[in-house]
Design brief:
Blueprint: H1 2-14, H2 35-49, H3 65-76
Helix pairs in contact: 1-2
């Protein structure tokens, strides 16, 4: 369920089909996302799941959708 939500958020921000988003997709190379779009994705995920994926000190920027999914799963306590 969390995967589908993340997949849909990424697709919505990037205006692509959800089925074009997979765990191995890189944000910049595969999906063509710029840093602002990645920030929008992270912000929407934080709002959706009521978590804090990154903070100003960590400077966390995921390279792949799978890395972001893993981070969200860890924060939610999902294995």
């Amino acid at each position: 369920m969390e995967w589908q939500k993340i997949q849909n958020i990424v697709a919505e921000v990037l205006q692509i089909r959800p089925e074009d988003v997979n765990m191995d997709s890189t944000f910049s190379e595969d999906l063509g996302a710029d840093s602002l779009e990645v920030y929008q994705i992270i912000t929407m995920i934080e709002d959706t799941f009521s978590i804090e994926v990154s903070d100003a000190m960590s400077g966390y920027t995921p390279q792949t959708v799978g890395a972001l999914y893993n981070r969200v799963s860890d924060l939610l306590g999902i294995s």
